[in-house]
Amino acid sequence: MFLLLSHTLSAQYIYPKTQCNLDLAVAFGSAFSPSISYQNLYGIGKTDRFKIGWGVRLNTFFSGQKNYITAPARLTSGTQSIVALFTENIAGNLDTLQLTKSNLSSVNGTIVLQYSFKKLDLGFNIDFIGFSFGGRQTGKFVASESKSLHGTTQTAKPTLFNLLLISDSDRGSLNSELYFRYWVGNQWALRAGASFQFLEYTTDKTLTFENDRFRHKALLPFVAITYTPFKMTAKDAK
Known about the structure:
Layout: H1 2-9, E1 11-14, E2 18-28, E3 32-44, E4 50-63, E5 66-70, H2 73-76, E6 96-99, E7 102-117, E8 120-134, E9 137-142, E10 153-158, E11 161-163, E12 174-183, E13 188-203, E14 213-227, E15 233-236
Antiparallel strand pairs: 1-15, 2-3, 2-14, 3-4, 4-7, 5-6, 5-14, 6-9, 7-8, 8-11, 8-12, 9-10, 10-13, 12-13, 13-14
């Protein structure tokens, strides 16, 4: 028994230099948002505990009525630089598009950062470029200034091109996740965390302030299941 215990305690986890993940996640709450992703992670350092990588993710977002607010940073904060992160919104520039429902999808490339503690991974990922698609939706336009457009019915479709820039300078629909993952075996894991999403629609007509882009921001909890063909294993310390 003593020899067996000593053997177990002397075992160490060996982390693969590269890791491939196939992941199915479901975010929920004020909306329903399933996603499927594939990731390639590459170890950095002697232990390969820290990994950086890339991936591809299919996002979907379904909900009832949502308010979409004026999207371009030049209107929301008056700047399109990193300063927009620390600048209050200009209330007089903000209009609202109240869509009766949201039904959009996006396919984006993803950047991934992750650190591992034996069976537990802590990580962050964020979409950086891609495209969106979905059907047209109608909704009420609430204008901050224009009396002629206030209360009119407008039609919009998902903004086609997605690009990660800085805060409200982002364009299109992008998803990011802060997560932890627990490995229940060598190839299967459970994952959970928070999903922060930018959802964007473009109206058929240019409205006030020469703007046609409107954004909804959603913070949702999510759960997921992960499969990988390669995972850390216990090996006797030399």
